[in-house]
Amino acid sequence: MKIYDTKSRELQQVGTTQGVMNMYCCGPTVYRDAHVGNLRTFLLSDLIARIAILEGMKVNAVQNITDVGHMSDDFVEHDKMLQQATLEKVDPFEIARKYEERFHADLARLNIIPANQYPRASESIELMQDLIQKLIDSGFAYVGEDSSVYFEAQKFSSYGAISGNKLDSLKPGHRYEYHNDGAKRFHADWALWKSAGERTEMVWESPWGTGFPGWHIECSAMSLDLLAGHVDVHVGGIDLRFPHHENERAQSNAVIGKEAVDLWVHGEHLLFEGRKMSKSSGNVVLVEDLLSKGIDPLALRLCFLENRYRSQMDLTWNSLQAADETLKRWRTKMSEWGTSSEATSDQEIADALSNDIDTPRAILRLREIEKSNLEDKRGLFLYADQVLGLDLGRPIIARELTPQMKKLLDERIKARSEKRWADSDELRVQLENLGLQIKDTAEGQSWS
Ligand code: AMP
Ligand code: ZN
After folding, report:
1. pLDDT for the residue 43
2. For ligand 1, atom 8: residue with the closest CA
């Protein structure tokens, strides 16, 4: 499998370490529900793992849970966890466990295979402190006057290799890191350990005083420790390229004296109805929102698969509805095509997937197969589904309309022709309660 590497700006073969593909994926900051944009990025590591498995590789995947130290981007430094804890009036660890559980539930709804380990930042404090001490001992980090520990950016000569943001072009005051930088020697230095100051929650003792870890050191500490000091593939959203991944690379490489990561993969962002998804735009969409509209969460997965991971994509309710319909059609056809659970390999699908995760091409091939005269359509679909993960083999259970359903459907047609909209809505609710899904199109009412 080849994937585009952000650092070398080339397609690169995915490697293994002692026969295993070690993958690290930056995980969620568990102060809120993951939105569908976050999920697009989390799906990316699932696709890489599934393609690797299809190609006969073993996979060891680690995804961190950030439950301390991720500061908000506003002008004052605020830990996102503590901010939310104040808002919900509960202990920050309670917030962390609540949203962590919901994160796992969302992954399951999208058929994302769980990582092998989900280390929590708050439970890896010692690991981070060890790494920070090593960086101080080797001269890459220093203790500031404020008892925080900083990484000295200028000591790491290839800083900026992933993002192209070289130190000499990073002007002081440029908004790329936290603003509270009084004790730094150089404006681009960043905190590895932050002194607690007034803060009393989520703080730990350390050789440099009470405090808490910075966000970037977490990913270095966990990836080096849990993936035997070498990451074959590192995955995250495009916004993490800088400064998060740039800083992680500097920390990890400084400690081990060589490249810690072979391949940096970044997924492009998701827009919703043409706009960046954000709380302030009021267009944050959650998996829950799909469920409440009767849309299968795997329709979201199909929408993602229809777009290349390296392109920004615009998700709309219309595309979700269309994907939901496609899934139903495919599952119905799969039932018609037989009951075998044997997959039949297809070179074109295999080539598409191993060529920089070209899922749109694989989907296109499925549409061709669907319309073709090929013998074993079911087997070919099952083959693709090992990576696409759309549950295409899920049996469709056909049921007969009951006389009561028929009666209500007829009543609703009549109500609509007489423009009695309130009655029509009421009848829809009754029908939905009986398990029917109703759609109104230009051709009239349809149901499934
Ligand atoms: P966070 O929980 O904010 O730390 O983000 C978790 C992951 O989601 C990171 O890898 C981000 O890069 C990614 N991410 C955030 N917003 C989007 C978006 N709109 N589309 C795709 N990925 C995103
Ligand atoms: Zn990370």
Report:
1. 98
2. 38
Which of 36, 38, 73, 95 for mutating ligand 1's site (highest number of atoms within 8 Å of CB)?
A: 38
Report the 3 state secondary structure along 104-137. HHHHHHCCCCCCCECCEHHHCHHHHHHHHHHHHH
Question: What pLDDT, on the 0 to 100 scale, is given for residue 176?
Answer: 45
Give the residue whose CA is nearest to atom 11 of ligand 1.
Answer: 237
Residue type, 249: R
Check whether residue 317 and residue 409 sit in a common domain: no
Closest ligand (CA of 34) = 1
A 10 A CB-CB count for 129 gives: 22
Specify whether 123 is located in the same domain as 47. Answer: yes
Q: Which residues form the domain of 415?
A: 403-447
pLDDT along the chain (448 residues), means of 10: 98 95 97 95 98 97 92 68 86 92 98 98 97 98 95 96 86 52 85 91 95 95 96 97 97 98 97 87 92 92 98 97 96 93 97 98 98 97 98 84 94 95 93 85 85
CA–centroid distance, residue 13 to ligand 1 (Å): 25
Q: Give residue 434's pLDDT.
A: 86
Domain count, the chain: 3
Question: Does 245 map to a domain?
Answer: yes
Does a structural domain hold residue 393? Answer: no
405 vs 434: CA distance, rounded Å: 8
The answer, yes or no, to whether any atom of ligand 1 lies below 6 A from the CB of 428, is: no
Tell me what pLDDT residue 316 has.
Answer: 97
Q: What gap in Å lies between CA 82 and CA 198, rounded to an integer? A: 13
151/11 Cα distance (integer angstroms): 31
- Closest atom of ligand 1 to CA, residue 66: 4
Q: Can you give the pLDDT at residue 83?
A: 86
Q: Report whether residue 28 contacts ligand 1, using a CB cutoff of 6 Å.
A: yes
* Cα(234) to centroid(ligand 1), Å: 14
C-alpha to C-alpha distance for 45 and 47, rounded to whole angstroms: 5
Name the closest-CA residue to atom 15, ligand 1: 38
Is the same domain home to 263 and 274?
Answer: no
pLDDT at residue 325, as a whole number? 94
Domain of residue 214, CATH code: 3.40.50.620
